[in-house]
Every structure is written in C-alpha cells, then in structure tokens.
C-alpha cells in the first residue's frame, strides 16, 4: 500500500494516554475530564435511548438540537442563524474540521495554519491535495503577527485555519486579532475555518469573541464547536459546524458520506440540557478558571515556569530549570515513567518540531487529581 500520509504515526494523545495507563500515572496528557458529566445529562441520554430514539438522526442533525444551537449562538454572539440551512451536527469537532477542509481545499490550494497546531488539520489538508503552510507562533504569548501573515499569502492561498482559545497554548484572540483576521479574509477572498471548541473557556472576564461576532468574516467562515468539551463528554463525539447556507450545502454533501448522521440519543440529551440548563454553558468559564487558578497556585513553588493561560483547559510549563538536557518528548516519558504524571510535549504540535523545553498539562481534572499531580511536580 502506498501511504497517503507517509509522515504520520499514531497520535501523541493515544501514545501518552497508553503510557500513562501502563505506568498507572496521573494522566494530564490527553485533554479530557476525569470527573463525571452532569447527572441530568446522563439521565437524559438513558431516557431518550430507552424511549426508542436509537435510529438514524436526520442527516443535518436533530431539529431540536439545531434550534438550541441557533439559540445559543444568538445568546452568546448575537448572530441569527437559519437553523435548517446553516448548522450541521457532526461526530465531534474532528469530523466537522475534516469535512470543512475537504469541502474548501482543492488540489494545490495553500492553507495557512499556525504552529503549534492541533494535530488533525494538516493530515486533512494533505488528504484534500492541499499544501499546509505553517506559520510559527512564539512563546510565551503565542500571538499572531498579522502583518507577517499577509506576507505569506500567494495566489494559491485558499483558506486560513484559526483556533481561539488555542490548544495547546491557551492563547485567546483579542478583538483586534479578529478584526485583522476579518480584514485579511475579506481583502484576499480567503475562507476561514475557525476551530472554537474551547469557546466557553475564556478566563479573567475577557469578552467571549467568535467568528460569529464579525459579520463579514462569518460570511466566509466555517465555525466549529464541540459538545464534548462544553458538557464534559468527549467520548460522545458530538460537535457541529456553522456556515452560510451556500457553504453548508456543500458541507452536507460530504458529511452525508462520511458519517451521514451522529449519535441520536446524545443529540436529544444535549438539546434538553441547552434548553433547561443554559447557565451550564455560561458557568463553564468560572468552573475551569477556578481549576486553572488552583493548579497554577499549587505549582507556584515548583521549579517549572508557568506560561500564560487565557483560555482552554491546558497549561504550558517550561521545565528548562529542571532538565534542560532532555528534549520535551524524553522529558514527558521520564515524567510519566519515573514520577507517574503524564504530559504532552509541545514540539509535536510543530511541523518542524521545536527545541523549546515546554510541556502541556490538562487541568480538566478533579481538584484532588490536580493537587496530587502538583505535589509530585513540586518535588522535581
Ligand atoms: N480541535 C481542537 C483544538 C481540539 O483540542 C479538539 C479536541 N481534542 C478537537 C478539535 C476535536 O474535538 P472532538 O473531540 O469534538 O472531535
Ligand atoms: N483534543 C485532545 C487534546 O488535545 C485530544 C483529542 C484526541 O485524542 N484526538 O488532548
């Protein structure tokens, strides 16, 4: 077989979670909560399934959920969506990203993305025959230099992929960033794929902004989110895409042949939560900000230095005062095997790697888990 992705191996998330399990380590590597989801949500799933809602959902998603996504988008960002034509429910944000890229990228098209980048973008671009063009963001703030971005445009540039709040750095776009992105996209006739899976995890009372807030940008964007993140159920693999009707028509042509539709009882359960417990979405930032603050406080006496975290449930740590001789993958393996705390090396999020001594830890964990991990990390 001739590999279509010769440079790709098993994802670092699978590798580190497996190593963590083998080593019985505290797993702060792969991003997922170690606590239960809301009991009302779990009960709703069981109830809808018992009631017989177990067959194929409509291809674009269950209408009750589409309505709730439209209502959520209006509440959070003031954007009015046509729920029957501008929203599609997908099997996780991963499917939405993949479908959007297959839809937008023709062979030879260039796609701008920022390193460190979430790992699913580049393979999806390559499978579409496109050319990923990676722009590096630099520690400690990982902010985008929009003037530099403009210099990397060519006549073949078709799409720009952005991710705010940003995995793995926790960087969050400012109002000025969104305006600069909108300007770039509209001036150069690009499309934008906005990965907003951590949209409800923005800290320190910063405004919650989205491509949804900027009409001219939204007109050329596919916006992706994930209920796995928002409702602590990453294993349900339920997300959605929002786009203008003309784009969404093309999106659905592909979605219908990738998965056709997504897990039916979960769609009803999430719709019920959005209707009856809408405050859970708005309370998420406070919930995770508390964890971020506790974790950072607990690590303040350690020899790690903490990078800023404005959003997401990830914290970057610089370990150069502890083991400057180890590259970050070796350090993560050492940490997991010798100290029983698993983390993700930052270099895997770069096309050409990184020599920085930085690791990513996930703080979507019980307070006791975070305290135990911090105690270990403070001893290093
Ligand atoms: N984008 C980013 C930036 C992510 O961190 C994740 C979750 N790992 C995804 C997309 C995929 O989300 P889902 O689990 O809903 O497929
Ligand atoms: N998004 C998760 C993370 O960044 C992992 C998702 C996955 O395992 N593919 O840790």
TrEMBL record:
* Span of domain Aminotransferase class I/classII large: 25-376
Under the GO molecular function aspect, what terms does this record hold?
kynurenine-oxoglutarate transaminase activity; pyridoxal phosphate binding
Q: Name one Pfam family in it.
A: Aminotran_1_2
GO CC annotations on file: cytoplasm
Q: Which prosthetic group or cofactor does it need?
A: pyridoxal 5'-phosphate
- What are the protein's UniProt keywords? Aminotransferase, Pyridoxal phosphate, Transferase
InterPro entries from the entry? Aminotransferase_I/II_large (IPR004839), Kynurenine-oxoglutarate_AT (IPR051326), PyrdxlP-dep_Trfase (IPR015424), PyrdxlP-dep_Trfase_major (IPR015421), PyrdxlP-dep_Trfase_small (IPR015422)
Keyword presence, Chloroplast: no
Family statement drawn from the similarity comment of this UniProt entry:
Belongs to the class-I pyridoxal-phosphate-dependent aminotransferase family.
Q: Which NCBIfam families match?
A: PRK09082.1 (NF006569)
Q: What is this protein called?
A: Class I/II aminotransferase
Q: Record the organism.
A: Alishewanella jeotgali KCTC 22429
């Amino acid at each position: 077989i001739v590999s279509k992705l010769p440079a790709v191996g098993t994802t670092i998330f699978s590798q580190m979670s497996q190593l963590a399990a083998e080593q019985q380590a505290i797993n702060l590597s792969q991003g997922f909560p170690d606590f239960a989801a809301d009991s009302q949500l779990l009960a709703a799933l069981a109830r809808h399934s018992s009631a017989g809602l177990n067959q194929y959902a409509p291809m674009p998603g269950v209408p009750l959920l589409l309505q709730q996504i439209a209502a959520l988008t209006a509440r959070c960002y003031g954007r009015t969506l046509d729920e029957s034509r501008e929203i599609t429910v997908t099997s996780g944000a991963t499917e939405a990203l993949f479908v959007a890229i297959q839809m937008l990228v023709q062979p030879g098209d260039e796609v701008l993305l920022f390193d460190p980048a979430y790992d699913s973008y580049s393979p999806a671009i390559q499978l579409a025959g496109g050319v990923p063009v990676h722009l590096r963001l630099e520690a400690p703030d990982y902010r985008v230099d929009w003037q530099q971005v403009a210099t990397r445009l060519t006549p073949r540039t078709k799409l720009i992929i952005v991710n705010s709040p940003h995995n793995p750095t926790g960087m969050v776009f400012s109002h000025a960033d969104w305006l600069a992105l909108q300007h770039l996209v509209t001036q150069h006739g690009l499309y934008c794929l906005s990965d907003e899976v951590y949209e409800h995890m923005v800290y320190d009372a910063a405004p919650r902004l989205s491509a949804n807030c900027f009409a001219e940008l939204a007109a050329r964007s596919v916006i992706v989110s994930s209920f796995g993140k928002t409702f602590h159920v990453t294993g349900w693999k339920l997300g959605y895409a929002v786009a203008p009707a003309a784009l969404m028509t093309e999106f659905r042509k592909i979605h219908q042949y990738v998965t056709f539709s997504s897990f039916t009882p979960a769609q009803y359960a999430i719709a019920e939560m959005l209707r009856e417990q809408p405050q859970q979405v708005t309370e998420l930032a406070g919930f995770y900000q508390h964890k971020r603050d506790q974790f950072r406080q607990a690590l303040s006496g350690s020899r790690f230095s903490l990078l800023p975290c404005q959003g997401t449930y990830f914290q970057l740590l610089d370990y150069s005062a502890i083991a400057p001789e180890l590259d970050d993958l070796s350090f993560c393996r050492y940490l997991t095997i010798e100290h029983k705390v698993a983390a993700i090396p930052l270099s895997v999020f770069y096309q050409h790697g990184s020599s920085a001594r930085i690791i990513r830890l996930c703080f979507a964990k019980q307070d006791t888990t975070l305290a135990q991990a911090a105690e270990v990390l403070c001893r290093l």
